[in-house]
Amino acid sequence: MSFEIKDRDLLARIGRLQTKGGVIETPLLLPVINPTIQLISPKTMENTFDCKAIITNAYIIRKHFQEKAVEKGIHDFLDFTGVVMTDSGAYQILEYGEIEITAKEIALYQERIDTDIATILDTPTGWTTSRNHAQHTIKETLKAAKELKKIKSRDDIVWVGPIQGGQHLNLVAQSAREMGKLPIQIHALGSPTPVMEQYMFDTLVDMIITAKMNLPLERPLHLFGAGHPFMFALAVALGCDLFDSAAYAIYAREERYMTEYGTTKLNQLSYFTCPCPACVNNSPQDFLDMPETEKQKTLAQHNLYVSFSEIRRIKQAITEGRLWEHLEMRAHGHPSLLQALKRLRKYSRYLEKNSPITKKSGLFFFGSLGQIRPEVVRHRKRLLERYSPPKEGKILVLLPQTPMKPFHRSKEHQKIVREIEQEFGCKAHNIHVCTYAAPFGIIPTELDEVYPLSQYEIVTPLDLETMNYAAQQMAKYIMATDYEKVILFWDTSLWKRKIVASCRRACKNRNIPLMIVQLKTPLGQKVFEDLATSLEHFFEDVNLNPTTSKINENKMI
Ligand SMILES: [Zn+2]
Questions:
Q1: Cα(298) to centroid(ligand 1), Å
Q2: How distant, in Å, are the alpha carbons of 345, 351, 459 from that of 377?
Q3: Residues catalogued as catalytic
C-alpha cells in the first residue's frame, strides 16, 4: 500500500491510496453495502455514481453466505470491480454483546474472500462506557492487532486498525499511540451513535483531533459511521480521509431527504432544490406518490448524489485553498456544527502547525471565527516569538487598516508617512510604522506584503470579538518590544475605544508615553502639526541625535 498526498488544506488532504484492487483518491466516501438487502446495487453504484469503493461487512457475509463468497471472491460476489473494504463484525459486538467468531477466523475469512481493505476484529468502546471497560476494549483491540502479524497469510491486503476509547480522550490518545506503533496501514475511529444522532460534533472534534495528535500523520484515517454530508467538511478538515455511509439507505427508508445542510422529512418539503437526476424531474409529491420500494430507491439515489457531490465540493475547496471558507459556510447550517467549529479554538495551535504555509488563494474573514485560522495563529506566533522590530525604531507609529492592500501603498498611509519624512528628515528612521488590522493585530510595514497579510478580505464594521482580539494583539506587541513612545492614529470610524484602552494599558505597564491622534477624514494639517510638536519634544527628551530641520525649528518658535 502507498498513500501519496497530492494537496492539503487545514488538516485535510487529497491523497492517492494504492490498494491491490486499484488506486482510490481520498477523501472518499464508501457506501455501505448490506449483502442481504440492497436498495442500490454495487453495480449501479459503480456505473451510475462512479463509485470507486464500497464497504461491506465480512461477518454478515460469512454468516449468510460462508464459502460462496470465498469461491467467487468478494468482487464477483458483489458484482463490483472497484475497491472493496470489509468491516469485521465489531458493530455486531456493540449491538449484541458477543459474536460467535474469533479475531483469527474473521481475519482469515477476509483474506479468503480477497478483500482489498480488511479490518481487524476490534472491540468497540461504545458510548456509555466506564473508564475500566474502555480500557478493556483498548487492550482487546490492540491484542487483535498484534496477533494479526502471526495470523495473516498474505501481504497484499491493506489492514485497518481501529482506535478505541470513546469519550475518554486520554484513552483515545493512548489507543492511538499504541496502535500507531504497529504495522497497520490505515486507522479508523468509530463515531459512536449518540455523537451522530445527537449532533455532538464538538465531542467528535475532540475525539478526532486527539486521535490525529497521537497517530502517524502519514497514515489514512477512516471515520466509521459518519455518513451525513453536512458534517463531511468538518471531518475532512480535521484530517479524516475515508468515510462509510449507510445513512443514504437508512434515511431513505425513513423518508428523510438529505441536503448539504441537514435532513428534512420528505412530506415536509414543498420544493426540491437539488439538481440530481432523481430530483430534477420530480417534485416531493411525485416521490411520495411512488410505490414504496421505488420511493426508497429514488430517495437513496438522491441521498447518494448529495453525499458524493459534497465530497467533490470539499475536494475542490482543498484544491483552491478555500476549505475554511467552505467549512464556515457549512457550520452556519446548524448550531451544533458551529459549536464544533468553535471548539477548534482549543486546537488552533495544532491546526496551525500542521496546515500548509502558503495557498493559492486569498482569505475571506466573515467574523470572529476567523481568529482560529492557521494563518492568523501563525502570524501571532511569528510576531511574538520570531520578529524583532528595526533596532533604530524608537517610536512606534500605529496606522489603521485601509481598504487598499498592501497597506503601505494606500494613499492614507503614504500621506502620513510622507508628512513624517518631511517633518523629521533623517530622524524619520527612528520611527517604525506598523498597521493595526483585523484580524491579524499588528502588521509591521516591512511584512505587509508577506502572504496572507495583503491577500485577505474582512467584513466591516468589525464585530466586537474581532476588535478585542486585535486590541489584545496590539497590547501584547507593545509589551514585547522596546519602543520608547507609541503614537496611535485612531480611526474612530472603524475602531472602538477598546484599542485605545489596550494600548494605554500596555504603555502604562512599560512606562512609556502614548500619543493618540484621532483620525478624521480628510486628515487636517493640524494633526501633523500636533504630531510634529509632540515628536519634537520626544526627540529632545530622549536625545536621539536631533537634527535641525527648518520646518521643525519654525514650529518650535
Ligand atoms: Zn436530488
A1: 9
A2: 10, 9, 19
A3: 87
